[in-house]
């Protein structure tokens, strides 16, 4: 065995990869020979005849990866080459020159140093024992770190060893040249030969690497993952490696290595690789995904933060767990769409055979000596990955964001996701841009910013002979930054724009961000911008330009001012690095963009800003105007036609590809109708203006060629399909466990293996019914009935002649009515002015008590004692009081045991995929043996849970509906609460006093409120939110708290429940604040952070912050109960208890079915005794929203017009 790096490494998250192959190409054999000669320069080295190459790419230390939110994970890429000559074998070990990102891994709970060694393995015929070791490194940490800095083959990070030709473990000879040009005079690390190990020595357990697909990332809005490009392939590993599969954080750590040996790795088809299927499904991102049709569209990689999502284009991540009761299957190996930046023997994957689908559908792929390039076909132009038809009008869509100061105003105007739409008539260079929802406070000043759309004009400018516009040179993927300075006020503004390629609708996608100050322009002023010229200077991947422009402002009173502004801009893009002929723009070192016919206008009525301009790209210093109409734009061709110049002023018009006509008039060709089979089998054709779009039919996906639709090898939910072999639904439950696996289990009241279930006669078991009751068996259940002379529900039977002893309330009531002022009245009557308590049918105090004579009402506890600060005066509505009485045993028909209401007491409720479980609490101790599912919601992913202590209802969100639902703990059906206009509801909170429901939606980026039944819905916040997740209420103060785990700026915020007084409470030393809870008794806000791995609390009033516990693993949700905090942990798949006073974990509960746990809450025995001004809806017509010291009456977003808003 050869261990390049021996440790507990992890590749299960899809980022880490293991590739290997045999290679006998001359280039590889030559490089191997060079390394051997450099290590052994004093002897003759035979040329290798074959090599075996293994690459470990982006490997993480076990236990540091697997987080869907992509926290920082340190990774290592390294390689082994075994070279074979006619008489010997050689091992070449290659390490990253920039150093190892980590030196230790955890093995058996202990921190172990990485090793590098050769091992004879197990030896012996009858008594197996470990053979000889040849250690390259020692127990010294420095010897590991120096693997990348030192050498024995004249090159840092390269180590060569002669293994020999003997099949026995005889000798290992290290290379002899321990200095390199970059590191002279370095000696090799110590090498030791260890004796045979004794039988009692315990070695490291070796498992097999599981190769999983990684995604080809693409540029999509808001940092979403692009869908993968898959290439099926299969291999068999030749030796074991140390790994324990687990979850991993998806953040690629790119080591910096020498580029000369860098080519992306490729798995080949020699041999077989077998995936080890884990017993449980492990998801690798915090978004929930379903499948989406793969589109063959080129994009640019962008890192991403996962969220919980439902279906979205370009956002897919899939596991392939083992089918039920079947052998492991061959996986699909996903191609890596980037160079492996390491100083190693590389796998050349950069060929058209593997990458044709990355070229435009209107481009050809050409192989070059070092890789492939895409080239647009005749009649199209672009960079090969984005190609558009010559003469065809182009459309652009995007969003505008930013903060713009106007004049001397101290506060900026915020633009948030304002829609931008652009249309370009390509055959004459006219560009039109419109931005919507522009406030009147900034609209007039934005008229000066015609340069915002200037880059669009440059991209599709009318080309003069021998010159090319931006899209012809660099395509549709680039970044642009412009700095604009306005004179004479020296106002400055920055424009940042990202162009993200062409989407499936053939529209160029872009985003714009503005930051800075604009001169103030009075509303109603007319702006006239003079024509200008802009010089562009080109280099391989960089373009710079600068210009100045004069403009006039004509105010509404006729005053005219002439001003100017200057700007400089840079454009960054990526050309194909493999084209030996060079980039097409290399010969065009400078070009001039001429812009005229500039029109700007702010439409105050429709809140629109409009720009229009005519653009030409051509030479510098040319005073001669092109007379041919094709170059002047005055040709009269249809907008969907190409103008072809002739001699002099002659020209012709020809409809562009996808259109037909005489060139003066062109109409769209319906390719789908004219050629029905154009998309091939198992595909659907959709006509587009000038083109068509092929989509695979349901159940099919695009193959690696981007054209052929092949059947999708997706997991099958046999439970949903009905193709399982479980017993009938009346006796058994089929539970989907991921992939194509499922579990059959008998329902309560039946026994068996799930595929065959028989009824259990519960009446044969002791103490099922009361001693004075008879038991009757039913299918799956039983009934109890009290015998004659007794009454009750069968579980509790009492003699019918026994009179119940009066309760305290009944005794107090009897005493109050004992004295009657009407001696001969048939019924006792209380003395006038005396208070008489009201008792319910069970004899308990009603929660609301009133004194009719004085017209006052108040709340009482279970003992009849008045709750302070609840008394209301005459002519006021009675207070909404919480029933403090203990719920008695149920009376009536005997429920089935599996749906019997849970007994009174405190419970933990937590979500686990498609169910909600409950664990009884005995004080602060979890009674784990009594835990069981409370509610099954098949095919749903339940995220957040909350509990209404008044109606004893549990509320939850699920992101697969998506929906917010509720169910009673006392039994009953699931009741939908909110089912519309939801995308990814991940947090939920309840104000049990004001009867309000709050939730966060991390896809809509909103915080909303409604009544508990889902009515009167209103958006509280829809700005400055990126990834809102947990949310919690403080009814006593009318406060709302939530956390946003935006990785660029995580924060915890607070506001009143009416949306006023929004402030950031915590923003420092946060990373991933997933869980949030509030302790009413101690007024403490606590949170669990999966990034800092801490639980912290603070007093939000005084903002005093303190650590509770550190070093936790991956918390998701958090709830407070007394002195304890309970959190769910994704990594441990457990519920963990933390004593806040002791600052340590006290207990852990592992559910029977191991999978990720989500939201958690408690069911208290009684509601917290807190009140606010909205206890009786505060006299509001619709929404009563509490705030500190008062309330606000607010209208829902959809109102009937009969709503009144006011602040009290």
TrEMBL record:
The domain of life is Eukaryota
Alphabetic keyword roster: Basement membrane, Calcium, Cell adhesion, Disulfide bond, EGF-like domain, Extracellular matrix, Glycoprotein, Repeat, Secreted, Signal
What are the disulphide bonds in this sequence? 850-857
Q: Which InterPro entries match?
A: 6-blade_b-propeller_TolB-like, Cueball_EGF_LRP_Nidogen, EGF, EGF-like_Ca-bd_dom, EGF-type_Asp/Asn_hydroxyl_site, EGF_Ca-bd_CS, G2_nidogen/fibulin_G2F, GFP
**Any one GO cellular component localisation term in the record:** basement membrane
Is the keyword Glycoprotein assigned to this protein? yes
Ranges for domain EGF-like come to 348-388, 626-667, 668-710, 715-758, 759-798
Task: Indicate the segments forming the Nidogen G2 beta-barrel domain, all copies.
Answer: 392-627
Tell whether Transmembrane helix is among the UniProt keywords.
no
Residue ranges of every copy of the Thyroglobulin type-1 domain listed in the record: 806-881
Name a single GO biological process.
cell-matrix adhesion
Domain named NIDO is located at: 4-166
Instruction: Read off the SMART domains from this record.
Output: EGF, EGF_CA, G2F, LY, NIDO, TY
GO MF terms here are: calcium ion binding; Wnt receptor activity; Wnt-protein binding
Q: What is this protein called?
A: Nidogen 1b
Q: Which organism is it from?
A: Haplochromis burtoni (Burton's mouthbrooder)
């Amino acid at each position: 065995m050869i261990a390049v790096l021996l440790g507990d490494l992890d590749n299960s998250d899809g980022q880490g990869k293991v590739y290997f192959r045999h290679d006998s190409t001359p280039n590889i054999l030559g490089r191997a020979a060079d390394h051997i000669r450099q290590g052994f320069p004093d002897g003759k080295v035979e040329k290798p005849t074959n090599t075996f190459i293994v690459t470990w790419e982006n490997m993480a230390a076990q236990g540091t990866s697997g987080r869907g939110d992509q926290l920082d994970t340190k990774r290592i890429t390294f390689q082994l080459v075994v070279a074979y000559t006619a008489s010997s074998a050689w091992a070449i070990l290659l390490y990253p020159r920039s150093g190892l990102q980590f030196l230790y891994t955890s093995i058996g709970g202990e921190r172990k140093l990485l090793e590098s060694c050769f091992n004879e393995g197990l030896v012996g015929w009858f008594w197996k024992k470990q053979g000889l070791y040849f250690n390259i490194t020692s127990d010294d940490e420095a010897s590991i770190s120096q693997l990348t800095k030192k050498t024995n083959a004249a090159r840092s990070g390269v180590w060569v060893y002669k293994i020999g030709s003997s099949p026995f473990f005889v000798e290992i000879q290290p290379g002899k040249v321990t200095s390199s040009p970059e590191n002279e005079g370095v000696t090799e690390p110590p090498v030791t030969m260890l004796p045979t190990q004794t039988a009692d020595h315990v070695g490291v357990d070796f498992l097999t690497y599981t190769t999983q697909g990684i995604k080809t990332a693409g540029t999509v809005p808001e940092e979403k993952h692009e869908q993968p490009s898959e290439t099926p392939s299969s291999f068999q590993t030749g030796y074991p490696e140390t790994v324990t599969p687990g979850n991993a954080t998806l953040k690629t750590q790119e080591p910096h290595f020498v580029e000369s040996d860098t080519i992306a790795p490729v798995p080949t088809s020699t041999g077989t690789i077998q995936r080890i299927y884990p017993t449980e499904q492990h998801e690798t991102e915090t978004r929930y995904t379903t499948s989406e049709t793969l589109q063959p569209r080129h994009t640019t990689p962008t890192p991403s933060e996962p969220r919980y999502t439902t279906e979205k284009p370009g956002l897919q991540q899939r596991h392939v767990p083992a089918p039920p009761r079947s052998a492991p299957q061959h996986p699909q190996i996903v191609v890596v769409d980037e160079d492996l930046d390491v100083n190693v023997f590389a796998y050349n994957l950069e060929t058209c055979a593997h990458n044709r689908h990355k070229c435009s559908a209107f481009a050809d792929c050409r192989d070059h000596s070092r890789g492939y390039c895409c080239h647009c076909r005749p009649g199209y132009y672009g960079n090969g990955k984005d190609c558009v038809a010559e003469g065809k009008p182009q459309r652009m869509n995007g969003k505008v964001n930013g903060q713009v100061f106007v004049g001397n105003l101290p506060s900026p105007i915020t633009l948030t996701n304002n829609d931008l739409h652009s249309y370009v008539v390509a055959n004459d260079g006219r560009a039109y841009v419109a931005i919507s929802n522009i406030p009147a406070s900034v609209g007039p000043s934005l008229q000066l910013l015609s340069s915002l759309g200037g880059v669009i004009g440059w991209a599709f400018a009318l080309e003069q002979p021998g010159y090319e516009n931006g899209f012809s040179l660099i395509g549709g993927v680039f970044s642009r930054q412009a700095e604009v300075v306005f004179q004479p006020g020296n106002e400055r503004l920055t424009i940042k724009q990202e162009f993200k390629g062409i989407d499936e609708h053939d529209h160029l996608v872009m985003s714009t961000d503005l930051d800075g100050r604009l001169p103030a322009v009075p509303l109603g002023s007319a702006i006239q911008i003079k024509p200008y010229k802009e010089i562009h200077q080109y280099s391989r991947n960089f373009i710079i330009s600068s210009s100045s422009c004069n403009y006039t402002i004509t105010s509404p009173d006729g005053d005219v001012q002439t001003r100017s502004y200057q700007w400089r801009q840079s454009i960054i893009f990526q050309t194909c690095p493999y084209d030996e002929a060079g980039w097409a723009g290399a010969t065009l070192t400078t070009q001039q963009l001429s812009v005229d016919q500039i029109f700007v206008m702010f439409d105050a009525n429709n809140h629109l800003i409009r720009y229009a301009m005519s653009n030409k790209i051509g030479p510098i210093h040319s005073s001669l105007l092109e007379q041919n109409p094709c170059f002047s734009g005055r040709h009269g061709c249809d907008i969907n036609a190409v103008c072809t110049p002739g001699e002099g002023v002659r020209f012709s018009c020809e409809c562009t590809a996808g259109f037909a006509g005489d060139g003066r008039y062109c109409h769209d060709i319906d390719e789908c109708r004219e050629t029905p089979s154009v998309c091939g089998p198992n595909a659907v054709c959709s006509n587009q203006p000038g083109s068509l779009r092929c989509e695979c039919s349901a159940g099919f996906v695009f193959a690696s060629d981007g054209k052929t639709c092949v059947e999708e090898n997706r997991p099958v939910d046999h439970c949903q399909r009905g193709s399982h072999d479980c017993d009938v639904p009346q006796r058994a439950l089929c539970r989907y466990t991921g992939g194509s696996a499922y579990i059959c289990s008998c329902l309560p009241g039946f026994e068996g293996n799930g595929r065959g279930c028989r009824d259990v006669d519960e009446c044969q078991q002791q103490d099922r019914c009361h001693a004075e009751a008879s038991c009757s068996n039913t299918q799956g259940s039983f009934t109890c009935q009290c015998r004659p002379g007794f009454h009750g529900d069968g579980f509790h039977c009492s003699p019918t002649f026994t009179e119940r002893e009066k309760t305290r309330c009944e005794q107090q009531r009897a005493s109050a009515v004992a004295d009657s002022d009407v001696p001969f009245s048939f019924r006792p009557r209380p003395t006038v002015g005396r208070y008489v308590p009201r008792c319910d049918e069970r004899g308990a105090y009603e929660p609301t008590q009133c004194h009719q004579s004085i017209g006052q009402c108040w709340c009482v506890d279970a003992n009849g004692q008045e709750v302070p600060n609840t008394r209301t005066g005459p002519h006021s509505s009675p207070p909404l009081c919480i029933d403090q009485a203990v719920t008695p045993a149920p009376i009536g028909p005997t429920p089935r045991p599996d749906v019997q209401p849970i007994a009174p007491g405190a419970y933990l409720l937590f979500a686990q995929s498609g169910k909600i479980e409950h664990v009884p609490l005995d004080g602060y101790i979890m009674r784990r043996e009594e835990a069981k599912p409370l509610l099954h919601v098949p095919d749903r992913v339940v995220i957040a849970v909350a509990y209404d202590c008044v109606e004893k209802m549990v509320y939850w969100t699920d992101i697969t509906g998506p929906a917010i639902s509720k169910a009673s703990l006392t039994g009953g059906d699931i009741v939908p609460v909110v089912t519309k206009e939801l995308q990814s509801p991940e947090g939920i909170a309840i104000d049990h006093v004001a009867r309000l429901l709050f939730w966060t939606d991390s896809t809509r980026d909103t915080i909303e409120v409604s009544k508990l039944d889902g009515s009167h819905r209103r958006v509280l916040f829809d700005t400055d939110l990126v990834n809102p997740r947990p949310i919690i209420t403080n009814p006593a103060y009318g406060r709302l708290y939530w956390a946003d785990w935006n990785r660029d700026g995580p924060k915890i915020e607070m506001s009143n429940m009416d949306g006023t007084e929004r402030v950031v409470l915590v923003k420092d030393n946060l990373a991933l604040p997933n869980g949030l809870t509030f302790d009413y008794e101690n007024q403490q806000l606590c949170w669990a952070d999966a990034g800092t791995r801490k639980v912290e609390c603070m007093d939000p009033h005084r903002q005093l912050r303190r650590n509770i516990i550190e070093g936790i693993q991956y918390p998701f949700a958090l709830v407070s109960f007394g002195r304890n905090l309970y959190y769910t942990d994704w990594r441990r798949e457990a519920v963990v208890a933390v004593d806040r006073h002791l600052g340590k974990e006290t207990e852990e509960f592992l559910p029977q079915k191991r999978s990720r746990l989500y939201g958690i809450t408690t069911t208290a025995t009684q509601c917290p005794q807190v009140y606010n001004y909205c206890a009786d809806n505060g006299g509001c017509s619709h929404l009563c929203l509490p705030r500190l010291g008062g309330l606000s009456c607010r209208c829902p977003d959809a109102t009937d017009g009969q709503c009144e808003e006011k602040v009290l």
